[in-house]
Design goal:
single chain; mainly alpha; two-stranded antiparallel ribbon; 2 strands
Length: about 170
């Protein structure tokens, strides 16, 4: 018997850890890339570095790091922590809510709206990153990004795990 952690539960079937890591990483990358493309490149509201520094400063405080690069890297870490948190939550509620199993795409899009609500109505105001958005275009843009970059990939990857888990 081996003391190593198995990366697959059965041949060709991903493990729970592998599924969570894959879904969280993909969702985190899609969301971060989209945020940079939309807010930094297309809208030119900020730079990619300032966007990441804002996340890092909000989470750890303005004086937590000596160098701007460290602040930006801490922003990446916080961003992925949040993406993995949403992934883990979805992974563990999935077996208990039949709608998630029967409507993978719709439930993923709705989960993105849920993620937007949690982030914009609780997390960002509590961390003093941003106030609750009040402009419709900003709200819709943010919700659509989270629907397609967080909710949908998490839903599809997690549901695939549970489908494969129940196959022989």
């Amino acid at each position: 018997m081996s003391n190593t952690i198995a990366t697959t539960s059965r041949v060709g079937h991903p493990s729970a850890i592998e599924t969570i890591l894959t879904a969280g990483f993909i969702a985190g990358c899609l969301d971060l890339l989209t945020a940079i493309l939309v807010y930094s490149v297309a809208m030119q509201r900020t730079t990619d570095t300032k966007l990441l520094q804002g996340i890092g400063r909000a989470a750890f405080g303005s004086n937590a790091f000596d160098r701007e690069t460290s602040v930006a890297l801490s922003g990446v870490a916080v961003h992925f922590f949040i993406a993995f948190s949403f992934t883990i939550f979805y992974f563990f509620i999935f077996p208990y809510i039949p709608f998630l199993r029967s409507q993978r795409i719709i439930s993923g899009l709705l989960y993105g709206i849920f993620a937007w609500c949690v982030m914009n109505l609780a997390v960002l105001p509590l961390l003093h990153i941003a106030n609750i958005p009040h402009k419709w275009d900003s709200m819709i843009r943010g919700a659509v990004i989270l629907m397609f970059c967080i909710g949908l990939p998490i839903s599809l990857i997690v549901s695939r795990y549970y489908i494969l888990k129940h196959q022989p």
